[in-house]
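Handover notes (outgoing to incoming on-call)

Open items:
1. HTH gntR-type domain-containing protein: sequence verified, structure written out, both below. Nothing else pending on this one.
2. Nothing else urgent.
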Amino acid sequence: MPMKGINRLTLREQVWTTLRAEILEGNLPAGSRLGEVDLAEQLNVSRGTVREALRKLQQSGLVEGEDRIGLRVAQFTPKQLRELFAVRAALEGLAASTIVTQGRGSEVADLLEKNLPAGADGKSAVEVLDEDLGFHQILCHESGNEVLLEMWNDLQDRMRVAIMSDASAQRAELMSGVYHQPIVDALRAGDPEKARETLNEHMRYAGEVWAVNREKQASRVDED
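HTH gntR-type domain-containing protein structure tokens:
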């Protein structure tokens, strides 16, 4: 009789995994309140288990607030969005210039061109975002800088929450193949500084769009 595999995840880790997935897929949108009692009842676990899972999510930047006033899914401010994309610009700009300096610009450009985001037609928001972030993750991976890739991966969950919280028409533009093509072209051109600057501009513009849209969202809420 074959033995069943052992589930090595603790109950806290299972709750954390479930809540993290709900947040990243947009089922718990930015700003959603996360009440311990309600979550414990829905997941059929103790409040203590939920509290531990929420604390871990808070440490990773997906949840914000204080226990005594309540926790919620992180809702990034315009300042935080600009800072997030500034960090991405630094990391990905370094990745791009490193690749070109290594003499691998054309090789990686070919790889990225095969993985350009293909557009939003017939896809869910999560699928579109997966393609976008997948493109940028390949760029970081191909730099060969393991610390850089680790730092980029550490930001990925926050990037997902930040982008999923914006439902504007500009989201499709910023995650299109057309918007990413200049990165491919810059790598192929073989100039490390041009490659770095192209990534800086790509991220600066995207960060500013998300930040301005967040300001508009906040303004509408205040008016209501």
